[in-house]
Each structure stands twice: as structure tokens, then as C-alpha cells.
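[Automated response] Your request has been received and processed.

Submitted sequence:
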Amino acid sequence: MSSTEQETNGATGAPLTARSQALETGAAMVQVRCSKDLFPWQYSLLSPASAAQNFAPVKQICAHLNAFHIYANDPNRCVESNHYCTHLNEDVRQCIIYDAPGSNARIIGVEYMISPALYNSLDASERKLWHSHVYEVKSGMLIMPSPSRMPNAAWEVAETKEMEDVIGLYGKTYHFWQVDRGDKLPLGEPELMVSLTQDGQGGDELKKMWRERDEKFGVSTEAKKEKRQEIEEPEVHAGA
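Generated structure:
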């Protein structure tokens, strides 16, 4: 069977070969800097590339945020989005978006987040491509999934602080892979995505996805909404 006739991890293509699996294993071992603790047989899995290469850009990822995006050209279509974000500076963040938080997740898009000062410097036509995060934060939809075995109370403090930082930012998001329609490859033109701005958007499908998301991560949207009432709500630019 040819690779175009197979499907692996939700994408058209053949399963990983033993060589590719060894490459991933070696990269993971280097990533956690545990080579001094390896057994002799494990050294054979460290490929020359994974042992020598520097993965600095992805090592800077410092936050995992989960929310839902809707298509700018079709507000009835929505997608769960797992953002893995880095800070370029105090005014610019950049996030790789995956369809799931697992090791076989597909990269489906990117989001850039900028400060209000930078957003206000954009021309009117450019501002239309960016969205506010106020509703995502205040509604409890935007979450920062807790690490396993982390006390919930302690994590809530960290998450709330992150929400205080994100609420004023503006995001520009494009998705390349339309997994919601079952695509097995990233097909067609990139799609501009936007965030929810009020209750009722996304319809029944979003309600179902939202409920399943909360169950998966063991969170309560309503509880988060209550905790975030004290977060100051910034004025949203009319162009967003």
C-alpha cells in the first residue's frame, strides 16, 4: 500500500519507520538533558542530528493555552485550539497551534499576540485581522491546562495571573489545516480565525465541544468565570 493510501495520526501517510522512531526518542532524551543517566543501549538511539542540533525556538515555549477559534468567513464552524506560546518581547507573543495536547498532535495554525500600543499603531485595514481576548478570558473559555499532580489552588493563581496579562492583548490567527471538516492534510488557502466575543456564538456544536473540553481537562468554565470577575476589563478597540 502506498503512503497516499494510508493514514497515520490523523494525516495521510505511512507510520513512522524504526529509524524515525529512534530519531524522536533520541531528540527527546537530549531535550530533557538526561544523557548522563542513560543505559548503554539507549545511547544507540541518539541520532547524530538529535545529539548535535539545538532546538532553542521550541525550548522557549512557556505557556499552553486552550480555547476555541471560529472561522472568520463562517462563524458556525469552530475548532479547539491548543496554543504553545513564547514571548518575543513584552509586546509580542507567538504561538504554535495544535489540534490536541498529545505527542501526535497536528500543527493546525499560528497566532500572534500584540500589546494594545502596537495594535493602535496599525492601520484600519490591518486592525480588522486582529481580535480581542476579553470575552475568552472573562467567560472562562480560555484556560491554561494544569500539569499533572499540581495542586489546583496553586495553579489557579498562576492561571489567573496569565489571564490578567492576556486579556488586553490582540491576536491574529491563521489556520492551515481544517481538521474540523476531516482533512487529512493541510489543504487550500490559510483561513483567518477569530475569537468569540459574546455568548451564543458557535451554536450547539461549540457548546458540545466546550463541555467535552472541560471534562477532558477537569475544569469548570463557570468556576473560572466567577474567579475572573475581578480581572479588570480593558476597553476594546472598535476595529477589533
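Summary generated for your ticket: The beta strands are 7-8, 11-12, 63-71, 74-87, 92-98, 107-114, 131-132, 170-175, 191-194. The first helix runs from residue 18 to 31.
If you did not submit this request, please reply to this message.
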